[in-house]
Design the sequence.
């Protein structure tokens, strides 16, 4: 979802065929067409010898929600030298609230457990989850300490994480989600690659290119 009202049609093909059937399958993804190379690289936090891959997303984005099952399976199959992280964006006030939800859950060690449940609540159950009382009730209904969650949600640490995520999305020049970033150098998205599934295949190709001797 763009900052503007932008509709991205998801492909119905599986990830295994999303890239293989394209005209550029033999040559691989093309810079400027399927991905962007940043003119100013962004610092990464992955340990030496690891490749950092980021997904920029928002709980409010329907395209992120639609991609999530595929992305989740893809992330589980990543090789050991890839460090995958999620970065929630804050394009507007509601998305900024959703940033804090993610980082509060992360601080509680519940991000992976609750990630799909938050998505489902917003997109299936049509909950906004932008009021503290509703958030506390939702977390309590899912087995968490609602009061503790709100404490974390309002904490300085979570505010700092959200601010850092904003700075990171600006450094990568992210103007729509979902988007993938690789090792501080490359960015791709469904609008560039042709679909969100193809963006994952482009990400795989970029990761592989970083392993090649220079």
Sequence:
């Amino acid at each position: 979802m763009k900052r503007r009202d932008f509709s991205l049609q998801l492909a119905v093909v599986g990830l295994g065929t999303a890239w293989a059937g394209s005209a550029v399958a033999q040559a691989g993804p093309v810079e400027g067409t399927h991905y962007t190379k940043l003119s100013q690289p962004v610092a990464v936090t992955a340990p030496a010898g690891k490749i950092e891959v980021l997904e920029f997303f928002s709980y409010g984005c329907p395209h992120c929600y639609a991609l999530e099952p595929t992305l989740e399976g893809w992330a589980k199959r990543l090789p050991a030298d890839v460090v995958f992280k999620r970065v929630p964006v804050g394009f507007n006030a509601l998305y900024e609230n959703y940033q804090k939800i993610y980082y509060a859950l992360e601080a509680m060690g519940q991000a992976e457990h609750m990630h799909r449940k938050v998505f489902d609540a917003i997109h299936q159950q049509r909950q906004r989850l932008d009021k503290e009382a509703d958030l506390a009730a939702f977390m309590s209904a899912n087995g968490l300490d609602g009061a503790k969650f709100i404490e974390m949600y309002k904490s300085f640490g979570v505010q700092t994480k959200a601010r850092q995520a904003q700075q990171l999305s600006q450094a990568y020049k992210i103007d729509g989600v979902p988007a993938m970033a690789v090792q501080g150098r490359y960015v791709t998205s469904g609008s560039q690659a042709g679909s969100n599934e193809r963006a994952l295949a482009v990400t795989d190709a970029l990761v592989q290119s970083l392993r090649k001797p220079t």
About this structure: The CA atoms of residues 132 and 150 lie 7 Å apart. The domain at 46-211 is CATH 3.40.30.10 (Glutaredoxin). The longest strand covers residues 51-57. DSSP finds nine helices and five strands in the chain.
